[in-house]
Specification:
Elements (H helix, E strand, L loop, with lengths): L5 H6 L2 H23 L4 H10 L3 H21 L11
Helix pairs in contact: 2-3, 2-4
Length: 85
């Protein structure tokens, strides 16, 4: 598993982000089940890698995108007032 970069996540749309989030959560859940059922140590080491801040990074990007969308739709674009000559 490779690291998830924030700038790559920002390029994706909301549906792709939610798909990525559900995929990561399913992988982590499967690894936790394998931990309980006494699977080999190879899978146990993947829990640390999978539980890396991937999930939190994806959730943060989702929240930021949603906030930006709400803010841009609620507030009209401000016009700059030039008071000088």
């Amino acid at each position: 598993m490779q690291r998830v970069k924030a700038h790559e996540l920002r390029r994706k749309d909301e549906k792709a982000l939610t798909d990525e989030l559900t995929k990561q959560r399913k992988d982590l859940a499967a690894l936790r089940v394998s931990k309980v059922s006494s699977q080999p140590q190879v899978k146990l080491s993947k829990i640390r890698v999978s539980n890396d801040p991937k999930l939190s990074r994806i959730i943060t990007i989702c929240i930021v995108c949603e906030k930006g969308y709400r803010q841009s739709s609620y507030y009209p674009q401000r016009k700059e007032n030039h008071l000088g000559p």
